[in-house]
Write a structure and sequence with these properties.
With about 250 residues, the protein is mainly β. Helix content is about 5%, strand content about 45%. It has 2 helices and 17 strands. Strands 11-10-9-8-12-16-15 form a 7-stranded antiparallel β-sheet. Strands 3-2-4-5 form a 4-stranded mixed β-sheet, with no helix packed on it. A 3-stranded antiparallel β-sheet has the order 1-7-6, with no helix packed on it. The chain is globular, with a radius of gyration of 26 Å. It starts with 6 loop residues before the first strand and ends in a 5-residue tail after the last strand.
């Protein structure tokens, strides 16, 4: 079936490895003519199981991880006999490759969880890659977070409402905000709902004369950077009880 870049031929008996291919596809199953097993390589797929339910009735299931960008895949039967099976791969324009960024969550129940955020290579709201703050401010509700316990690595969904703050592994993340160098820095003290008090610098992205701490407090952004002396944090403003400006020498 020439002319379709999304078609891949599934031929019997071709078991040659191709180390340059990104992902592996296994085709196996039974037909009325007997058992068969083939090994093929299809770009952007981690694994495929193709089960032949009769000569002209194949079904397929996909196991897509990592760099996969597949939404659907179907088997197209070419002319026979014997029939020729083609795999039609349809990619989603909405799926993007995810990066991984380490951070530590402080939750409202007092627990601390270290793990990994999943971030996109491009941000939907600014130029450059997505940051942890972008993930937290993107929408309400739950976000995925990868953790490792005594048994396995797993992905847990945490609700944004119950995240008091996040300690970043990358202290330079705030400097990627447009206008960071010209924004007014204010050293503040924050009292949080868990009883913890933090001191650090915030940036007020407002014109001169309207860059007071009260102007900063009125902005709608929920999760905000706080650059401390030893770490950079993202604080959930819903968990800030008290906010005061302090001397930069304090």
């Amino acid at each position: 079936m020439p002319g379709d870049d999304n078609l891949r031929l599934l031929q019997d008996g071709d078991g040659a490895d191709d180390e340059a291919s990104e992902c592996e596809a296994d085709a196996s199953g039974e037909s009325r003519g007997g058992g068969q097993h083939s090994k093929h390589f299809v770009p952007h797929l981690r694994r495929i199981h193709l089960k032949l339910l009769g000569d002209y009735a194949p079904s397929i299931s996909l196991y897509c991880t990592g760099r996969a960008s597949i939404t659907t895949a179907t088997v197209v039967v070419g002319p026979g006999p014997p029939p020729v099976y083609w795999l039609r791969v349809e990619r989603s324009e909405f799926r993007v490759e995810k990066g991984r960024t380490e951070a530590t969550l402080v939750l409202a129940n007092g627990s601390t969880v270290r793990g990994i955020f999943f971030v996109s290579a491009t941000s939907a709201t600014r130029s450059g890659p997505e940051r942890i703050k972008d993930v937290l401010n993107s929408e309400p509700g739950f976000f995925p977070f990868e953790i490792q316990d005594a048994l396995a690595i797993k992905t847990v969904l945490y609700h944004r409402d119950h995240v008091v703050m996040v300690t970043l592994s990358n202290n330079n993340e705030p400097s990627t905000d447009p206008g960071y160098e010209v924004a007014t820095p204010r050293v503040v003290s924050m009292l949080l709902t868990n009883g913890q008090r933090l001191t650090g610098a915030v940036r007020v992205f407002r014109p001169v004369g309207r860059d007071r701490l009260s102007d900063y407090a009125r902005t709608n952004e929920r999760f905000r950077y706080l650059e401390g002396p030893d770490a950079t944090m993202i604080v959930n403003s819903s968990h800030v009880i008290e906010l005061t400006e302090v001397s930069q020498d304090a």
